[in-house]
Amino acid sequence: MNRNLAGYRKMLGLTQEAISKIIGISSVSYCNKETGKNDFTQTEMEKLIKIFNNEGYDLTMDKLFKRV
């Protein structure tokens, strides 16, 4: 499970369904990726970084996608 990603998503008040629409994938696909069942593509990771950094976070790929 990617707790960093889930935590930042929740801080923005976004559901998995809402963020999946923003990055252009199904909510089931997003859930599987956030919970670690599947991997995000490079493009999806870049879209997620952009979403959070546009909201004032200063995140890198390593920080956001570090598995804990």
CATH class label: Mainly Alpha
Looking at the structure, the CATH topology is 434 Repressor (Amino-terminal Domain)
* Helicity range: 55-70%
Overall geometric form: globular
- CATH homologous superfamily designation: lambda repressor-like DNA-binding domains
Helical region count? 5
Mean pLDDT: 92
Mind describing the biggest β-sheet? none
Number of strands: 0
Query: Which class of secondary structure composition applies to the elements?
Result: mainly alpha
What is the number of independent domains?
1
List low-confidence stretches: none
Element order: H for helix, E for strand: HHHHH
Could you say what the CATH architecture is?
Orthogonal Bundle
**Relative strand content:** under 5%
**Nearest-angstrom radius of gyration?**
11 Å
Termini separation: 7 Å
Structure described in brief:
The protein has a single domain, classed as Orthogonal Bundle (434 Repressor (Amino-terminal Domain)), CATH 1.10.260.40. Helices cover 63% and strands 0% of the residues. The chain has helices spanning 3-11, 16-23, 27-34, 42-54, 61-65.
What does the secondary structure layout of this molecule look like, with pairings?
Layout (H helix, E strand, L loop, with lengths): L2 H9 L4 H8 L3 H8 L7 H13 L6 H5 L3
Key features of this structure:
68 residues; 434 Repressor (Amino-terminal Domain); mainly alpha
Account of the 3D structure:
The protein is an all-alpha fold and about 70 residues long. The chain has one domain (about 5-60): 434 Repressor (Amino-terminal Domain), CATH 1.10.260. About 65% of the residues lie in helices and about 0% in strands. The termini are close together.
